[in-house]
């Protein structure tokens, strides 16, 4: 039955929490919301008791590489489906399949595998593809494999678009590289979210990029020129530009809690996005992995290259939500950063909110932020 009534839930809205709410769902859409318990659901609706737990909009992870031992760059549908299931199990109802810098054929194979899965997802829906590279600065490469880093190439970018088409939703670049500004102009015409990271851009170079059309910063503070009082860099430029939003990896490793609070204070929940940036070790635990052509060791949940460089994350979205609240940010703002803001950035007009007419993409959480169930298009997954 695709018609449901969710009773006795604490509804997490952008501006408040509604206790003992009821959400009516018809044909995969939110039909109406009531602040009281229904007297009777009727035979047309399946009644589901939320037991007083939190109901929030499905989270949207705009930056994830792998999970449960699977790396989406391997070019297989199996890996894409594994990440789809892992996202749903941890509270995401949509995600961007995210690449790492690679040879062009490996990237095209990844894109082809995503195309085969779209519309057939076993868990969270694919909202598109996020290309992290390969047009990144070796000086700020982080875990990106330097042998695959190159200057922006419009001809190569056209080849990528011929294969991926409108699936490309976000591209992370270093705008200071030769050809960077031309690439921004090319991407802006295609309405792609242009993100900046793995960049050594100066304040002035970043300002030019943001004026030209860049509007997002990938894993802010990581993989970029740091702030200095005589060399403010791209982070300060992003703080000054109202239209620029920031990704945050909240895992107790990539960002100090004070930095998370600073980002929130300057940008607000509408300008911050929680991400996992997870590699295939998410959900697997400590051990050795191959990621982006590198040997990666995960110890106590922290992934590093042999030289100690951080190599993505193992955090899940529901854990990132909990850790964000632990920094002192309100639960409603944290929910907005995990659900509403990424939906707005990606132009997903029917997702990211619990309002009549929106998709019934919902997550029920207990007070420890554990996922009780995830609902996608009105159907509980798993």
From TrEMBL:
Q: Which UniProt keywords apply?
A: Carbohydrate metabolism, Hydrolase, Metal-binding
Per the UniProt entry, what species is this protein from, by scientific name? Paenibacillus apiarius
Looking at the record, the residues that make up the Amidohydrolase-related domain are: 55-380
Family matches, as PANTHER family: N-ACETYLGLUCOSAMINE-6-PHOSPHATE DEACETYLASE
Q: Name one GO molecular function term.
A: N-acetylglucosamine-6-phosphate deacetylase activity
Q: What domain of life does the native source organism fall in?
A: Bacteria
Q: Give the matching CDD domains.
A: NagA
Listed EC numbers = 3.5.1.25
What's its top-level EC category?
Answer: hydrolase
Q: Which InterPro entries match?
A: Amidohydro-rel, GlcNAc_6-P_deAcase, Metal-dep_hydrolase_composite, Metal_Hydrolase
Kindly list any coiled-coil regions of this protein: none
Official protein name in the record: N-acetylglucosamine-6-phosphate deacetylase
| Family listed | Belongs to the metallo-dependent hydrolases superfamily. NagA family.
